[in-house]
Amino acid sequence: MNVMAAHAMHKEILFTGFGGQGIVLAGMIVGRAASLGDHRESTLTQSYGPEARGGACSAQVIIADRPIHYPYVRHPDILVCLSQGGYEKYIPMLKKDGMLLLDHDLVRPQGEWKGTTFTIPATRFAEELGRRMMANIVMVGFFTAVSQTVSVQAARDTVQALVPKGTEKMNLAAFDKGHEYGLAVLKGRRKKESGEKDVA
Amino acid sequence: MIEQNVVLFLCNWGPHAAFQTLQDRQAPIPEEIRMVRVPCSGRVTRALILKCFEMGADGVLIAGCEPGSCRYGTGNSAALNRIDRMRRLLHIVGIGAERLRWGGFLPDDASGMMAFLENFCQELRRMGKTPIVPPPPAADRPVTEAAVSGLLKRHDIYACQDCGKCSSACPLTLTGKPFSPRGLASQLMTGAIEAPEVLNDLWGCITCGLCDDRCPSGVHFPEFIRDLRALHRSGNGPAPEAHGGFFQSLMRTMASPALRPNRWGNLDSNLRVDPESPVLFFGGCAPYFDTYFTRFPEVHTEAILHDALRLLNFFDIHPRVLTEERCCGHDLLWSGDRENFVRLARLNAEMFHAAGIEEIITACPECYHTLAHHYAECGIALKCRVTHLFEFAEREIAKGAIGFKPLGRKATFQDPCRLSRLGKKADLPRKLIGRLTLKGFEEMTDRGASALCCGNCAWTGCDRYTKALQLKRLRQVKETGSDLLITACPKCQIHLRCAMEDPFHGNDLAMEMMDLTSLLVQTIQWES
Ligand code: SF4
Ligand code: SF4
Ligand code: SF4
User: Fold this and answer.
1) Which residue on chain B is closest to A177 by alpha carbon?
2) 0.90 surpassed by complex ipTM
3) Domains and CATH numbers, chain B
């Protein structure tokens, strides 16, 4: 699929979770897929400090068609949350017409933000696939499907390149699971909108 | 020379008197008429009618007494009813409804009889012969000891250690039937190939495969029985077939290359099929079953096929269906007619290949097992993948965003032998059942690979013992405290419903049945 939109793209993305979930790796995969794979501009910044040692940590990614002059994300277009803490901390910054991606076993959305939300049991899927640690990769797959900011090919290749040697197969399975789930969710929404929710 | 054959079943009473008058007057009765005198037109079974066509009749006439003048009260109305359904079936199978006709006569109506016969024969001459190629007369091929011992070797029956595990597992032996798989094996080994017990056991086995599951020596009894039946069939002729061999006749009829069935006539307009699709939905014989078993109005097996199409449509698959679809042949193979099975299988394979089919999806466990395994075993290689609808559904549902509306039913499950035992896929339907939102699910005492049979396989050997087996099964169903029996094979529904009608048990064993396919379709929904 050609992800190049007709008009110039500029997307600010914030991945958040707690330390040890591989949040930065998720950001790195998405950013690198956009630049090296899809030949766009991208930046990655990560928050250091106390959160990196267990609190809410985050990775900030910007993907754009033009050079990026300022690499920090203040009002994300897409917020991806793998922890309740991260969600609570960053939800006030999410744009009104932005997109929210959640692990629905780990995050309980509350408050007034009511925009487009996609949820996936990423951690549960990762456990079913054999490693809880791969929740970030499941989420990257899901993100790829629903956000349409990076191409599947680029994201998949980058997962393969960046995960530890010897775990590529498992991680690709995790990516595919998240991606497939994302496509199913999109299809489900389309079906619901067109009034084909069930077999009437 | 008249090339056509017309069988005239003539009731002993009114019609026969009329016919006799014609004979006495030496009236020019059309030469193609072959008269068979019967005690009452109501005694002409559908098996008999179909047998005529199978054997080369181009038309069948049934002459009964005028409405209201039946000697036995309801004979002619029963006949009319039956003929009506039979005509529907003849249409679906491609023989044509117009080739079967009923006439009612008073004893003095010789001229009416003459007109009836002439009229029909004239129309039939216009229609021409049926597309059916009658089977060649059974060749004289005695069952030899050499052939039997070849089979014993091929199926490794000599590995039997006489341990008795098969007999203690065999659901038929357990009903008290004087029947023993091990006994059959040892008699054959000692050369008693025509002993009455051997013939009894040969046609009695329901090929359920439980013995196979238990045997420590890996003796594959059902396959052995299947091949031994083929040996006997090619030598000794008919077997104890249920329903007078109706279904075997039906399948043999379909082995004629020029026949063009008219399947899928009842397709709802909101079901989406695509005549170009490389994915074929193979329905199986449900429409024939429904036309035949009208006495079980609750059993509507064709609805399962439509639900299967709905499920495919739900996932955006618009498969092809073939109007000329024939039977897969499972029951011919398992009731000993390998020759016609192979004929049928070849025709099917040619049809799939000519249509460019890449994948066949079916909801029937027998079609699935037959297409996926028996075709190749008999040397017919399909160039397409064969998928059971449950495999397809499980794959799609596992992708996510699918949920199931709650169903306030407590259910249990009848395993289809061809999927759960022979196909070793007992987990597959259970995975799907596990996804449903039921009020409860309770397994029966015997389940999965150890499940009890629904009572019959391949329309062969239905008797009081298999009935006892069915009642045992239905009691197990009741013991689960369920109010719904989930099935996964159209025939399980037919045979079990038949057992539920047992007059000695009234409504004690009655239970609603629903195919897993229909259950999925009724409750599935997109969730996101
Ligand atoms: S279970 Fe197997 S070995 Fe034992 S008696 Fe039966 S066929 Fe023979
Ligand atoms: S296949 Fe079933 S009915 Fe036949 S011998 Fe084995 S257990 Fe008995
Ligand atoms: S159980 Fe009933 S429906 Fe099944 S073969 Fe026997 S008589 Fe026919």
Assistant:
1) B399
2) no
3) 6-127 (3.40.50), 146-236 (1.10.1060.10), 260-394 (3.40.50), 399-526 (3.40.50.1860)
